[in-house]
Amino acid sequence: MDTLTALNTRVSVARLTEPGPSADQVRQLLAAAIRAPDHGMLRPWRFLVLEGEERERLGDIMEWRLLRRQPDADQCARDNIRNKALRAPTIIVAVADITEGHKVPAWEQVLAVGAAVQNIMVAAHALGIGAMWRTGDLANDETVKERLGFADKDQVVGFVYLGTPAGALKNLPDEQPETFLRELPRGRDD
Fold first, then answer.
1. What is the value of pTM for the model shown?
2. Domains of the chain by range and CATH?
3. I want to staple 186 with a disulfide (CB 3.0 to 4.6 A). Which of 99, 132, 174, 190 is the partner?
4. What are the tens digits of pLDDT across the range 55-64?
5. Which residues neighbour 150 within 8 Å (Cβ) at sequence distance 6 or greater?
6. What's the farthest any 2 CA atoms get from each other in the chain?
7. What is the DSSP letter of 128?
8. For residue 175, what are the contacts with CB-CB under 8 A and spacing of at least 6?
């Protein structure tokens, strides 16, 4: 698939099943990720590739966090949160390892990792792999970051779920770029 076709036809795939990407495909996805734009060449991206039992360990973290917030959560709620880590055969956790006090502000470092995740999404589509980028409040929890092996200063940018699409892909909206164009406002002196 050529680049423009991949960019123009990519959709998020919410329902994923086995098989997940092969080790070589994961390597290709990460190779695409690290080619993202990066002001200052800080290389802020860090990735955790979770498969098999590692997804269950992520489920443990999710359940632990739920019980911290809702100590009386019933078994159904606990099972539901744990199952979120099992929604796809492979999960790539993308984290911005922030270099503090650098001339490149933290928000630009986070954007660089966001661009890396977008590269993963487009590369996955080009390889025929279904992908869904998720965040949620789990991404902003300091103790979750710690349990994932990161510092408070770092930012989880996304949990990228990868696998084989289960069911039909959603239709792309019929949109034109002109819909999103704006004109520069005239100044007071114009």
1. 0.94
2. 13-52+88-167 (3.40.109.10)
3. 190
4. 999 999 999 9
5. 46, 95, 97, 156
6. 65
7. T
8. none
